[in-house]
């Protein structure tokens, strides 16, 4: 879940209103500035076929236009510390939604949710389509809107309910008090509840919500908030079901992996998102002895990123991040051309975009990058070879003995596997085997990036 969405949910949990804008009418000077701006916008579109000016100022008033979707601009008017929003048609330059709404959420590229407060600061919501048509959105009884998770097309709702909360910090000694506990729910666009009884902020990662349900007892945590005794699981909003077991005390998203712990917390499990789980060794958080020297060097050279579980296989996105750390270290000021196309599931990641433009990484036929997919050893060799070439490195293949499992190498990877062996950047395993389909860990990735740095620098 994005940082700003978590911040909004934090406001909800604290008991404050989600939206801070105050319902207020625009002053006459702000209205004049808005009218003048709209006149200029329409003239520019008429004269040039596009909008050239995106900012306008007036007396105690500022108007900023920003891209909302393919057909619309968002109009953000700030006057006397009050924000008002509207929607502008890119073709005509005319307002299709007036600048009188207190908040907005961009939805799926064609719809926008706008809200407006009444005199008692109660919000009402509407869906605005690409023509500006407004359709009211009615929340389920008792719930308020927290936020929207665009990658899941799911709304997060909340409500408060009175529950007995054990408070060890009570001034008169430990006591059980009846207090408000915040519950969350997930709902689809039509406000059908997909999952309720969630008593922690549901976090969204890699196609799933981490959700805790089933609490029957609550205990004060610190000076604020209450922790329930429910259990956590990975909830798939597409199927409306939990994937795998729903009996974890906590589930974390570490190094782009789901890690679950059960009640005693002494054992950790890697969750594969398909219902499977693998018990992790106790030393999974430690770097191997063979890797520590080169990992320390990589950290000194600014090439490393923080990994909580370095022995786990690295994801495509995290490997790309390490690759671009090295590229930017060697070429700190070199301009990188924009990629011809951006991946549908990773369009906002500058490392992925830059690596794609340099030819270091490629995507899949369906236009995706699959950032959380782990890489194999032969995939790592291929990306390392491309990175080496982008940094100006050259190799000449020599007639060294082939790996014993050469026949298992993909034709697309064979040249890279032997090129990386020749440079000493990436070697094989025991018994002269390369093991091309084995996973490639974070610590192995860091070590090979450091080795390449030593060669290229």
Automatic annotation (TrEMBL):
Among Pfam families, the record links this protein to: SLH
- Which InterPro entries is this protein grouped with? SLH_dom (IPR001119)
Q: Which residues form the signal peptide?
A: 1-23
UniProtKB keywords: Repeat, Signal
- Positions of the SLH domain: 335-398, 400-457
**Protein name as it appears in the record:** SLH domain-containing protein
Organism of derivation: Butyricicoccus faecihominis
């Amino acid at each position: 879940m994005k940082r700003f969405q978590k911040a909004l949910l934090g406001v909800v949990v604290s008991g404050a209103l989600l939206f801070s804008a105050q319902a207020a009418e625009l002053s006459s000077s702000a209205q004049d500035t808005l009218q003048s701006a709209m006149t200029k916008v329409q003239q520019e579109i008429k004269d040039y076929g596009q909008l050239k000016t995106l900012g306008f100022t007036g007396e105690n008033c500022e108007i900023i236009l920003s891209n909302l979707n393919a057909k619309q601009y968002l109009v953000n008017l700030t006057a006397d510390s009050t924000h008002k929003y509207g929607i502008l048609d890119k073709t005509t330059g005319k307002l299709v939604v007036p600048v009188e709404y207190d908040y907005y959420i961009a939805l799926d590229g064609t719809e926008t949710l706008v809200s407006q407060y009444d005199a008692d600061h109660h919000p009402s919501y509407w869906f605005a389509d690409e023509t500006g048509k407004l359709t009211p959105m009615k929340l389920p009884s008792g719930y308020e809107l927290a936020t929207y998770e665009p990658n899941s097309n799911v709304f997060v709702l909340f409500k408060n309910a009175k529950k007995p909360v054990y408070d060890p910090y009570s001034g008169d000694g430990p006591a059980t008090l009846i207090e408000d506990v915040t519950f969350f729910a997930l709902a689809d666009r039509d406000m059908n509840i997909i999952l309720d009884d969630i008593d922690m902020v549901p976090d969204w990662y890699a196609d799933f919500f981490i959700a805790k349900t089933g609490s029957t007892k609550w205990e004060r945590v610190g000076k604020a908030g209450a922790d329930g005794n429910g259990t956590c699981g990975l909830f798939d909003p597409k199927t409306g079901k939990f994937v795998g077991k729903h009996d974890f005390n906590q589930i974390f998203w570490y190094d782009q992996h789901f890690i679950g712990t059960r009640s005693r917390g002494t054992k950790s499990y890697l969750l594969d998102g398909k219902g499977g789980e693998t018990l992790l060794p106790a030393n999974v958080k430690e770097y191997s002895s063979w890797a520590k020297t080169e990992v320390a060097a990589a950290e000194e050279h600014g090439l490393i990123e923080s990994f909580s579980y370095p022995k786990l296989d690295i994801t495509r996105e995290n490997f790309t991040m390490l690759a671009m750390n090295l590229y930017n270290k060697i070429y700190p000021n070199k301009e990188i051309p924009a990629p011809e196309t951006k991946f549908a599931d990773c369009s906002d990641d500058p490392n992925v975009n830059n690596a794609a433009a340099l030819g270091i990484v490629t995507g899949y036929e369906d236009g995706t990058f699959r950032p959380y997919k782990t890489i194999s050893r032969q995939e790592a060799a291929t990306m390392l070879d491309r990175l080496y070439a982008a940094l100006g490195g050259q190799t000449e293949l020599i007639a060294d003995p082939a790996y014993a499992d050469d026949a298992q190498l993909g034709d697309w990877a064979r040249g890279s596997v032997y090129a990386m062996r020749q440079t000493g950047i990436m070697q094989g395993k025991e018994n002269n085997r390369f093991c091309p389909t084995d996973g490639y860990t974070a610590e192995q990735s860091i070590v090979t990036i450091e080795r390449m740095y030593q060669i290229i620098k």
